[in-house]
């Protein structure tokens, strides 16, 4: 029942439960904290009102003193003698699409978006200054909004790497580690290593527990039913560059996210839609023409799709100045049809 509520019904229930329980929303905005109706302990009883996950269901409740729980909205309302608040199921035109109708019914691919929590490398510590990141334009706000760290040379596997956690619903579900040497330096070292038998350097050393086709970087920045537009990028540094250069840190309506490559999966599409996103702007690198066309085709059944046509085949968001980025969004946003025609003409 809970996942069939409209946003208006959910908000009405939250406000009524706050009044009924005498509780208040906690600092995370995801729980009503109240006195327990079973053991009467003060502020030990929580009702979950955040976005549902595999581990947490809307309106489930639990007392952290006596351990008593309810697992559904009906059980919760029965406990508080407020069955008058029980919502009758009706058809709703704006209701969020469910997984079984989000994609064509004849698809044979099962959408699995379940994720496990991933431990960061041993000795990981968050950083708020780093010479490599400074060279890539990082400023104070970037360190605040996009957690990044190192192992401070206490874990030899990650010496000279910067490590970006990938967060989903507050949980670390992966990480991307980028070596601080540039590609040419790494290639020269690895060429010599073939002869000397020395160790080879990997440009990226990433987590392996969860498939990256299930992950989106900066996903938690998307506010359900508030953020209506996302900009798809290939990688983490694109997300950071767009946020900084367009000053999107506190902009709730538009958020850049990374798909970890030049394509999007069904699981990633589903994750965007359950957040209520309506418009997707494809912001892949200018040379990714075929990948952009394919991604636009994949997205069109579910979103309004636009393409940010970056001029110059070898440029990405890090390369562009704030003024050049503004020019792209002001004058070079194209529909998929317009983009395909423009590439035929070039």
Written overview of the protein:
With 346 residues, this protein is of the alpha+beta class. It folds into 3 domains: 2-85, no CATH class; 125-196, no CATH class; 212-345, Dna Topoisomerase Vi A Subunit, Chain: A, domain 2 (3-Layer(aba) Sandwich), CATH 3.40.1360.10. Helix content is 29%, strand content 16%. The protein has 11 helices and 14 strands.
Overview in brief:
The chain is α+β, with helices and mostly antiparallel strands and 346 residues long.
Q: Top keywords for this entry?
A:
single chain, Dna Topoisomerase Vi A Subunit, Chain: A, domain 2, 5-stranded mixed beta sheet, alpha+beta, 5-stranded antiparallel beta sheet, 3 domains, 346 residues
Strand order of the largest sheet: 1-2-3-4-5
Q: Name the structural class.
A: alpha+beta
Tell me the overall shape.
globular
Low-confidence blocks of residues: 89-108
Topology summary:
Layout: H1 7-21, E1 24-25, E2 31-34, E3 45-48, E4 61-63, E5 69-70, H2 73-79, H3 99-102, E6 125-126, H4 131-135, H5 140-145, E7 149-150, E8 161-168, E9 171-179, H6 183-196, E10 229-233, H7 236-245, E11 254-258, H8 266-274, E12 279-282, H9 289-299, E13 304-308, H10 322-331, E14 333-334, H11 336-345
Parallel strand pairs: 10-11, 10-12, 12-13
Antiparallel strand pairs: 1-2, 2-3, 3-4, 4-5, 6-7, 8-9, 13-14
Helix pairs in contact: 9-11
């Amino acid at each position: 029942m809970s996942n069939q509520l409209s946003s208006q019904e959910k908000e009405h229930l939250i406000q009524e439960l706050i009044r009924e329980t005498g509780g208040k929303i906690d600092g995370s905005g995801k729980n009503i904290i109240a006195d327990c109706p079973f053991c009467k302990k003060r502020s030990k009883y929580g009702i979950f009102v955040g976005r549902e996950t595999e581990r947490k269901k809307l309106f489930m409740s639990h007392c952290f003193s006596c351990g008593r729980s309810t697992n559904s909205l009906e059980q919760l309302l029965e406990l508080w003698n407020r069955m008058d608040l029980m919502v009758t199921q009706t058809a709703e035109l704006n209701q969020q699409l469910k997984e079984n109708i989000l994609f064509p019914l004849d698809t044979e691919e099962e959408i699995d978006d379940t994720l496990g929590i991933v431990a960061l490398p041993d000795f990981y510590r968050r950083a708020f200054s780093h010479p490599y990141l400074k060279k890539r334009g990082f400023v104070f706000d970037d360190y605040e909004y996009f957690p990044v760290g190192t192992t401070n040379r206490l874990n030899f596997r990650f010496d000279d790497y910067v490590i970006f956690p990938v967060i989903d619903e507050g949980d670390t579900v992966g990480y991307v580690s980028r070596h601080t040497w540039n590609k040419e330096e790494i290639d020269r070292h690895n060429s010599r290593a073939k002869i000397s038998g020395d160790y080879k350097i990997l440009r990226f050393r990433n987590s392996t527990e969860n498939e990256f086709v299930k992950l989106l970087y900066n996903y938690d920045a998307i506010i359900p039913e508030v953020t209506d537009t996302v900009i798809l990028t290939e990688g983490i540094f694109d997300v950071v560059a767009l946020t900084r250069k367009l000053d999107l840190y506190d902009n709730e309506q538009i958020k850049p996210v990374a798909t970890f490559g030049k394509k999007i999966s069904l699981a990633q599409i589903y994750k965007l839609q359950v957040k209520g996103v309506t418009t997707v702007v494809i912001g892949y690198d200018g040379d990714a023409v075929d990948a952009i066309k394919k991604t636009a085709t994949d997205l069109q059944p579910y979103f309004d799709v636009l393409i940010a046509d970056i001029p110059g085949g070898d440029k990405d968001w890090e390369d562009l100045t704030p003024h050049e980025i503004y020019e792209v969004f002001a004058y070079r946003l194209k529909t998929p049809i317009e983009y395909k025609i423009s590439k035929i003409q070039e």
